Amino acid sequence: MSCSVRVSEPDSDGLFETPRFPRRLGSLVCSLLVGALTLSGCGKPDAPAPEMPPPSVVVVPAQSRVVDEEASFVGRVLAVNRVDLRARVEGFLEERRFTEGQEVKVGDVLFVIEPGQYAAAVEQRQADLEKARADQLNTAAQLARGLELVKAKNISQSSVDELQAADSIAKAGITLAQAALTRAMLDLSYTTITAPVPGRIGLASYTVGNLVGPASGTLATIVSRDPVYVQFPVTQRDLLGARQAIEDKGGNARDVKVRVRLPDGTIYEHAGRLDFVDVTTDPGTDSVTLRAELPNPDGILVDRQYVGVLLEAGAPESAILIPQSALQVDQQGVYVLILDAEDKAQTRRIETGQSKGADIVVKMGLDEGDLVITQGIQQVRPGQAVRAAPATSAAGELEQ
């Protein structure tokens, strides 16, 4: 389609004159005419846009399950008995009578430091003691003779006093020699290092032939394995809140069951009980140290290992659980999208509780059987029709 605008020129006489239109104005008029023709139906109308299908989502029914009320913390496993073996006398390591990692009993000989020089010292102190006793016998005899002579006035009293002093010194010499012998015998006994507690012995720091002594540090470590302690800090706020919750249910804080979550996420099969609450609070963290004792017959819990600690209080109760992947958060709080009777997504405000693995407890807002959207949430708006499919497998099973 073409468009032209004719511009009149003035006549030669100048009596009649038509205004000259600018070229740009002519082009604008042409464009408007073309547009008017197009709008009036000169062209073929566009086809209607195809209707988009409803988005696909995955729904999971809210389920009521029996759960334990619990609180989680981070704790450390501690051996009930832990002993660092050290040398108390200096000498060359003569024997090592254990295999690293083995179980030992009280009194088992573990290390032997060369005893020869200490046995010789014992013999020397024994000889010193015998000499001291012999000296005292001599001074005692002289004193008895002097006491007889002084009666007949054949000796002065000052001489008798000197004999008494000599006898007292001889008796003190016996005591001194006896003490030296005891010390030598102790040193000799320290050359044999035995197990003071039952447990498992670790790596040896020194091999046979090395010179060891009090400055050598730990030769090996023994730790008991069954039972074990689990120690963990709890803030004063959490401690008071937990105690109040237990008492509200009619329970006793001393009956709280303690379970351990292992590093691989599994729950340790044996439960324990609290046996100690520290008498002071850490001023830096306002926390109190709690300790539980747990059986460890298979040695799964290892000394100084970090574990999760779960405190279970009161009798198990029924609660609604949903996958945590369904949770949404905005300025008004936590909500989920549910599927109504018309297969439309609707917003439902909820109040959540404790986590249970991949699931979470819903305290308020949902009923058992409500279909909760867990996948495809990003492409759904409240009130929008959706195409729902059930989850192929149960999500977030409750941890046992």
From TrEMBL:
Recorded hits in InterPro entries, A to Z, give: MdtA-like_b-barrel, MdtA-like_BSH, MdtA-like_C, MdtA-like_HH, RND_pump_MFP
Annotated Multidrug resistance protein MdtA-like beta-barrel domain residues: 227-314
- Enumerate the GO terms in the molecular function aspect: transmembrane transporter activity
Mind telling me which residue stretches traverse the membrane in this protein?
none
Topology with regard to the membrane? Lipid-anchor
List each copy of the Multidrug resistance protein MdtA-like alpha-helical hairpin domain by range: 123-191
Annotated Gene Ontology cellular components are:
cell envelope; plasma membrane
Give start and end of each Multidrug resistance protein MdtA-like C-terminal permuted SH3 domain: 319-378
- What's one Pfam family the UniProt record gives for this protein? BSH_RND
Q: Where in the cell is it found?
A: Cell inner membrane
Q: Residue ranges of the Multidrug resistance protein MdtA-like barrel-sandwich hybrid domain?
A: 81-217
The UniProt family comment states:
Belongs to the membrane fusion protein (MFP) (TC 8.A.1) family.
Protein name as catalogued: Membrane fusion protein, multidrug efflux system
- Species of provenance: Thiocapsa roseopersicina
* Upper taxonomic lineage: Bacteria, Pseudomonadati, Pseudomonadota, Gammaproteobacteria, Chromatiales
